[in-house]
UniProtKB/TrEMBL annotation, chain A:
It catalyses: ATP + protein L-histidine = ADP + protein N-phospho-L-histidine. GO terms for molecular function: phosphorelay sensor kinase activity. It is an enzyme of class 2 (transferase). This is histidine kinase. The modification 4-aspartylphosphate is found at D642.
Automatic annotation (TrEMBL), chain B:
It comes from the Bacteria. Residues 23-217 form the FIST domain. This is Histidine kinase. Residues 218-357 form the FIST C-domain domain. InterPro entries: FIST_C (IPR019494), FIST_domain_N (IPR013702). Signal peptide: none annotated.
Length: 712, 378
């Protein structure tokens, strides 16, 4: 039972009463207990609520503190930002007194903020600018616009004024009541200066445009839009109004030199200029008086305020075209001169060769005719001089051909080893005469059969070896041929011609490849030679795609090095055999009957002497026609055929002989006798049906070997 | 309209049905589940009133006249002069959702001349909010709905509702439609509970299960405020409902705890507590609850003036009964004082109430209120 009720019962009720009111007391007790429970419950709620509210309050305080700090931080950050802005930020009252100014105010005007706040802003404005300023502000106040721009001069503490631009708005309180003005002020002194400068620059450019001696034109599409004086002059127009507004078509002929319509061509160029941004081309224009003149036109697309226009630079080509024409004529003249020179040299060489053949031939005959001792010496001098003269003529001939660009490089199969050996066989005896060793070293990796120009390679090696022997008095001369690299069938071969001779001073090493140059002018006197050999060799190597280099030392001698690219042949059969067989079997040629076709009596005389010696019988034909008749009337074993003859030349004669009916005419060996270098004419010779050739001047040994070769 | 009432305290008193002398069109029957589902009782009813409509359910306390009973049957017999009635019932198990159930129930009522609808539902296997949503989907906005959820003492184990055929069954939802211009209906609902403490944000909930308040487990917080009485949960929860306000709405519905789940620290409520809504803890004192009942009655008199209503059906929450205890009849008397003593009063203590806040407004599921429906017929 509830404590309070128990106490009350004991105090106010007897035991009888208690039993009498048992149910009532029970209800009262229940109510007491429930009230207690409810009270406890409410106390708990109160307690829990107050704890909860206390906690929340603490959290709120903390948040408030954080927010306060945040605001402080933000406002200090804002202050920093506002003060780091280069523009003045301001606020004024309606009557114009400064309410707020940031640091930029001091930076721009020099006045301190403290002293300026409260002062009327108009005190700082140039008197001449106040009126326009007030007018602008009125539009704001009357609500015609939300903000206005004002340009004016602001006083600085030095007493001078600065150009400034202000952006101003009405300041409104939170309830929308207008409270004054707010805005920013920018220092535009620099901009004003730049504007002035820009105006000046514009003026300058206008002047440059107008006064330039180059014709400038600005077009819009094909319409003339603007031009300078030089342009008017160029077109022969006196007044600008007569030019501006007209179009390209008005000042162009109907057709351009390439036959295209001017109008269409112009359009194409304008289109190209639009896409590429520029175009440059030659054009024929018409002057006002209708005369044509050539110009070079440079079009440039320029985006201007009025839309895209083309800036045109016209370059009068009349003078240049004239000079060009002159240059072309001069060049043609020069080329002709060179050609004439080459032809002259070529002709001269041929003309000189013919008598030279006689001189050499006769010298040979003399030397083989058992001369006396005193005669031998003279004959030797004669022989040497003739050989030198011949070499000089050959060099000049070669040189002129190279100069005239008439050298062609052969690509024929040949036996590389034989070629080198052949050259060696010529130089070995000569070296021995001077007491020198002649050493040949061929890299075994180099294939035997190659494709290239053996004649030219021989020529180069002959020249270099000849030089080496000439300038070496003791020691040796070497030909070293080494394998460099091979790519598929392409082979790179290095040639080295080394000697232990007098050497070339370093400063002369570049010069030696120049025409008519030798290391020393004394050299010519001492060693002879034309000075053309190295130039020719160098050019030939270059034509064949190689290069030559020299290393020399006055003590140890000289080494010439050059590379050549040759092709490896897969056909072992060699068409040209340069093997020199160093034996004579006179019996083999004895009793032959030969037809000698030659118009030059000197050559006839010489060859006759050799043939007689070899006990060969012969008939002479002075031209091809005679030869054709003779070959049918007699039974010849062989024909020696000169190529250049009157009436009928050697080619025609051979072709006629070969076309005669009868097998013997097909088989009879016909050897050409020619002063030309064989590689230049060999195709023609072979095509004509000749078997081989003997070159002039006639070398008796050569002639003998060739005859022997074709004896059946 | 003629009304008579009778109270039956046990199975021995079924014969008291004979005390009803008028020929009733309708019987409101509220009572102990065990009794109203008794076969004998059904036979007794049918013997006395062979073709009378029966509308009623099991309860957590019965109201008859100015008295409150327990473990009894409160019968209110009504004879109408011209008003047409229609009762329809559905079984919750026949529908996938409670919404669909509400929709199907309403579809059974012809819309023409329908004046008012009363709804009684199983009090345990139902989501009252969903049921009302279903009803609202189908019913004309002009028709007001009042009613409640059947009770089962403070046991929460089994509730009954009378079917259309007059058989008390579990999982049943029944509706009573009033047709015609003769009938006038008044209604009012009010709790009288007071908020305390701070408003809390519902951060996690699903339908009528509340998981988190301000990211804190809901049960933990709830127990803190219950103090010693936390031991008596869920029963003690009856006395500490929550008020639930959605968004900026000022009207808050009251939600009573019907169960707890220690495993996930959640609270199970008699109605939905949407996520994002705001709730406050509530407490009551006797005076404020009685005042609440008085306000409900005053709302009714706005529609049927004092002294004119002939019948009043009171549906009051079982939670109120637990708080009022010995003073429970005070809240019935105060209603009678307001509407007038001429009205015959019947009713029951429920697991939930249905009513609009004010005249012609949307109806909601309530907890912890005194919900009154008054009738008069011309």
């Amino acid at each position: 039972m509830h404590r309070l009720l128990k106490r009350q019962i004991r105090k106010y009720l007897s035991a009888e009463d208690e039993s009498k009111f048992e149910y009532f007391l029970k209800a009262v007790n229940e109510a007491y207990t429930d009230y207690d429970t409810d009270l406890k419950q409410h106390e708990n709620i109160l307690e829990t609520c107050s704890v909860e509210l206390f906690t929340l309050n603490k959290e709120l305080q903390k948040t408030l503190q954080n927010k306060t700090e945040e605001v402080k931080e933000t406002s200090s950050r804002m202050e920093t930002i506002v003060n780091s802005i280069s523009e003045i930020i301001f606020q004024t009252t309606f009557s114009g007194e400064w309410l707020y100014l940031n640091v930029a105010w001091t930076k721009i005007t020099g006045f301190t903020i403290d002293k300026s706040i409260g002062v009327n802003a108009f005190e700082f404005i140039h008197p001449d600018d106040i009126k326009s300023c007030l007018l602008k502000l009125r539009t704001l106040i009357e609500g015609e616009s939300n903000f206005c721009f004002i340009e004016g001069r602001i006083l600085t503490n030095s007493g001078s004024y600065k150009w400034c631009e202000a952006t101003i708005r009405l300041a409104k309180e939170r309830d929308g009541i207008k409270s004054g003005f707010t805005g920013t002020v920018k220092d535009i002194t620099e901009r004003k200066r730049l504007e002035a400068e820009k105006n000046k620059t514009e003026e300058k450019f206008k002047l440059i445009f107008e006064k330039s001696s180059v014709a400038y034109l600005i077009t819009k599409g094909s319409q003339f839009f603007e031009c300078n004086k030089a342009c008017l002059d160029l077109f022969g127009v006196s007044r600008k109004e007569d030019f501006i507004g007209r179009s390209v078509a008005d000042f162009s002929p109907q057709y351009q030199p390439n036959g295209a319509l001017s109008l269409e061509t112009a359009r194409t160029w304008i289109e190209e200029c639009k896409t590429k941004g520029y175009a440059k081309f030659d054009w024929i224009h018409l002057k006002e008086n209708g005369s044509e003149f050539p110009v070079e036109i440079a079009l440039n697309t320029v985006p201007l305020m009025e839309g895209t226009v083309s800036f045109v630079v016209l370059n009068d080509l009349s003078e240049r075209k004239r000079v060009e024409q002159e240059l072309i004529i001069a060049k043609e003249k020069a080329e002709n001169a060179t050609l004439v020179k080459a032809q002259f040299l070529s002709t001269m060489s041929h003309e000189i060769r013919t008598p030279m053949n006689a001189v050499i031939g006769v010298t040979h005959l003399l030397s083989e005719d058992n001369p006396r001792e005193d005669q031998i010496q003279n004959i030797n001098i004669l022989k040497l001089s003739a050989d030198n003269l011949m070499a000089l003529i050959n060099d000049i001939l070669d040189f002129s051909k190279i100069e005239a660009g008439r050298v062609t490089v052969e690509a024929v199969e040949f036996n590389f080893r034989n070629l080198i050996q052949n050259i060696a066989s010529v130089f070995i005896p000569r070296s021995r005469e001077k007491g020198l060793d002649f050493i040949v070293d061929i890299d075994p990796k180099i294939p035997v059969n190659l494709i290239g120009d053996p004649t030219r390679i021989s020529q180069i090696l002959n020249n270099l070896c000849g030089n080496a022997i000439k300038f070496t008095d003791k020691g040796n001369v070497q030909i070293v041929v080494s394998y460099q690299e091979r790519y598929a069938d392409k082979l790179k071969v290095k040639f080295e011609i080394k000697d232990t001779g007098i050497g070339i001073p370093e400063h002369k090493q570049d010069e030696i490849f120049q025409s008519f140059s030798q290391a020393d002018s004394n050299t010519t006197r001492l060693y002879g030679g034309t000075g053309l050999g190295l130039t020719i060799s160098k050019k030939l190597i270059e034509i064949m795609g190689g290069s030559i280099d020299v290393k020399s030392d006055l003590e140890f001698g000289t080494t010439f090095t050059f590379d050549l690219h040759l092709i490896v042949s897969h056909h072992p059969q060699i068409k040209l055999d340069f093997t020199v067989r160093n034996y004579r079997n006179l019996n083999k040629v004895k009793g032959l009957h030969i037809l000698l076709v030659e118009d030059n009596p000197m050559n006839v005389l010489m060859i006759k002497q050799f043939l007689k010696k070899w006990e060969i019988t012969y008939e002479i034909a002075t031209n091809g026609r005679v030869a054709l008749e003779k070959v049918q009337s007699d039974n010849f074993d062989m024909v020696l055929m000169d190529l250049q003859m009157p009436v009928m030349d050697g080619y025609e004669a051979t072709e006629s002989i070969r076309s005669l009916p009868g097998e013997k005419y097909q088989k009879i060996p016909i050897l050409a006798i020619t002063a030309s270098l064989f590689n230049e004419i060999h195709t023609k010779v072979l095509n004509a049906g000749m078997n081989d050739f003997v070159s002039k001047p006639i070398n008796p040994e050569d002639l003998y070997l060739k005859i022997e070769k074709y004896v059946h | 309209m003629k009304v008579e009432k009778v109270i039956i305290s046990s199975s021995a008193e079924y014969s008291k049905l004979k005390d009803i002398r008028l020929q009733p069109d309708l019987l409101f029957i509220f009572g102990l589940g065990e009794l109203i589902s008794d076969k004998e009782f059904r036979i007794a009813i049918r013997n006395s009133f062979s073709d009378c409509l029966i509308f009623g359910c099991s309860s957590s306390g019965e109201i008859s006249g100015l008295e409150v009973f327990k473990n009894s049957i409160s019968i209110t017999a009504v004879q109408f002069s011209s008003t047409k009635l229609r009762i329809e019932s559905v079984d919750l198990n026949d529908y996938k959702t409670n919404i669909e159930c509400g929709e199907k129930l309403c579809e059974k009522f012809p819309a023409k001349d329908l004046k008012h609808l009363m709804v009684l539902s199983d009090g345990i296997h139902i989501n009252g909010c969903h049921l009302i949503e279903g009803i609202q989907n189908k019913l004309s906005k002009k028709v007001a709905v009042t009613g409640g959820l059947a009770g089962d003492g403070t046991r929460f184990s089994e509730t009954f509702v009378f079917t259309k055929e007059g058989e008390a069954k579990n999982n049943c939802v029944s509706a009573l439609g009033f047709y015609g211009d003769a009938i006038s209906v008044g209604y009012g609902t009010n709790g009288g509970w007071e908020n305390f403490g701070i408003e809390r944000h519902v951060t996690k909930s699903k339908d009528n299960v509340l998981y988190e308040l301000d990211q804190q487990p809901a049960l933990l917080l709830y127990k803190q405020f219950l103090g010693e009485r936390a031991k008596e949960l869920p029963l003690s929860g009856m006395s500490f409902p929550l008020s639930c306000r959605i968004g900026d709405s000022k009207n808050a519905v009251v939600r009573t705890v019907h169960g707890i789940n220690e495993a996930d620290q959640s609270l199970l409520f008699g109605g939905n507590i949407p996520e994002g809504s705001y709730v406050k803890l509530m407490k009551a004192n006797v005076d404020s609850l009685i005042l609440g009942a008085e306000l409900s009655a005053k709302a009714c008199t706005d529609m049927i003036p004092t002294g004119e209503s002939e019948l009043a059906i009171l549906i009051s929450c079982v939670g109120r009964k637990l708080v009022l205890k010995q003073l429970v009849e005070e809240e019935v008397e105060v209603v009678a004082d307001v509407i007038g003593n001429q009205a015959i009063i019947g009713g029951f203590y429920s697991y939930g109430e249905i009513s609009p806040f004010t005249k012609d407004s949307k109806y909601y599921l309530h907890n912890q209120t005194m919900t009154i429906t008054t009738f008069s017929e011309k």
